[in-house]
User: Which sequence fits this backbone?
């Protein structure tokens, strides 16, 4: 029964995983192509991505609220409610995206007050502004994608995400290196490529949802359903705000740790970014399992199938556990090979290789804590899990990382041991909560 349920979850998760990895692939492409230009510009991209990651996931939390609510409506066979969720979710997410982008663009000066090398901060400014503006089309795409995901139509967004990779690589090649008569823009060119790519795929997805027959029953209701509804907005905010805080607290912890690593110099910063990019890539599969588990659990919750709900959760956690072990082993085996894909600087590659050992240690806890969050979101349990995330990262992970790095002089390795500690605490707290809640529901 466990294998059967995980197979059903995996069927939904696979397109989500591919889509997630493709989105992370945009950052990996930027890092790889910039790393070939100058390690200081790679460090600048690391600084920007660390800083913008926090407001980015705050916006993503609002978008992610759309999928479980849509799944519950789908389980109840209520197309009108699903259509209204699409409209109100799209509106709220877009408003949040515009607010975040404007705030970031007008506060870029603080990049010079984070204790980084001044050259790194100077390189970072134009890239930072472009990535900030690109959050608007990114979150617009995410809101529509989450609606599709909630209906278990996951292949459309996956296809567009895959298309975005060669598109972004091509645009980067043009703008970074100055091809086809364009000026050589280097790191700024990577920002232009990402912005244009995100605009294109957002527009295409919106057109598909309006015109494809799969979504016709929901679009047909737009005259009556597409109105601002206070109740729907409150429900979205009830899930979206805690979800934003959950993701924000987690990513902020990684971002603050990244800034602390920047205090150790540009070499450690660049090495950290390479290792973090790789760890983020493996996390995207775990996030796919989390999203699929959340959708299936929410659907069962909407149909009041309580026993099935617990079986889905247990099978998803077990699958995440196995996946995490596989990723950890892979990082150890290929720790000396992977970093050279991103840099030709021997010192940066060596430091990054050592950090991948620590990344291997937290693969299991990273996967299972992500799944725990998603399963709890599927049953609308979001408040206490948010407190758990805050405790795990900010009262355990970051203090441990700071102490090991700067008091025991372990350098970047100390920060990464802090990651291991925080993620493990988060996994234990969240999955214990799901076991308890699902048992009560049953």
Assistant:
């Amino acid at each position: 029964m466990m294998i059967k349920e995980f197979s059903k979850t995996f069927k939904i998760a696979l397109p989500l995983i591919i889509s997630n990895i493709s989105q992370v692939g945009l950052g990996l492409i930027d890092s790889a192509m910039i790393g070939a230009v100058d390690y200081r510009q790679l460090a600048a991209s690391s600084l920007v991505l660390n800083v913008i990651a926090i407001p980015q996931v705050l916006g993503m939390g609002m978008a992610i609220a759309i999928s479980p609510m849509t799944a519950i409506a789908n389980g109840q066979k209520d197309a009108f409610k699903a259509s209204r969720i699409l409209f109100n979710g799209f509106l709220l997410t877009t408003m949040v995206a515009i607010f975040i982008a404007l705030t970031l663009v007008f506060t870029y000066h603080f990049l010079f007050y984070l204790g980084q090398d001044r050259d790194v901060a100077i390189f970072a400014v134009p890239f930072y502004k472009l990535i900030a503006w690109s959050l608007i089309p990114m979150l617009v795409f995410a809101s529509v994608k989450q609606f599709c995901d909630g209906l278990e139509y996951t292949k459309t967004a996956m296809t567009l995400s895959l298309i975005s990779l060669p598109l972004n690589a091509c645009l980067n090649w043009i703008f970074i290196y100055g091809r086809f008569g364009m000026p050589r823009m280097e790191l700024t060119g990577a920002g232009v490529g990402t912005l244009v790519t995100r605009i294109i795929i957002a527009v295409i997805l919106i057109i598909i949802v309006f015109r494809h027959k799969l979504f016709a029953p929901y679009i047909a209701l737009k005259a009556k359903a597409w109105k601002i509804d206070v109740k729907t907005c409150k429900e979205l905010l009830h899930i979206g705000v805690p979800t934003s805080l959950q993701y924000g607290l987690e990513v902020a912890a990684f971002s603050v740790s990244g800034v602390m690593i920047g205090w150790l110099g540009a070499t450690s910063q660049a090495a950290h970014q390479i290792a973090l990019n790789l760890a983020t890539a493996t996390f995207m599969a775990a996030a796919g399992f989390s999203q699929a588990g959340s959708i299936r659990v929410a659907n069962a919750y909407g149909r009041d199938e309580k026993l099935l709900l617990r079986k889905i959760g247990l099978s998803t956690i077990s699958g995440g556990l196995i996946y995490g072990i596989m990723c950890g082993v892979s990082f150890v085996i290929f720790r000396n090979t992977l970093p050279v894909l991103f840099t030709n600087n021997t010192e940066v590659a060596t430091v990054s290789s050592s950090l991948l050992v620590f990344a291997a240690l937290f693969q299991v806890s990273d996967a299972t804590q992500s799944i725990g969050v998603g399963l709890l979101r599927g049953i609308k349990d979001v408040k206490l899990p948010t407190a758990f995330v805050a405790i795990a990262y900010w009262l355990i992970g970051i203090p441990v990382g700071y102490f090991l790095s700067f008091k025991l002089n372990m350098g970047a390795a100390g920060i990464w041991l802090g990651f291991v500690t925080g993620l493990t605490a988060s996994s234990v707290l969240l999955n214990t909560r799901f076991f308890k809640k699902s048992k009560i529901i049953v």
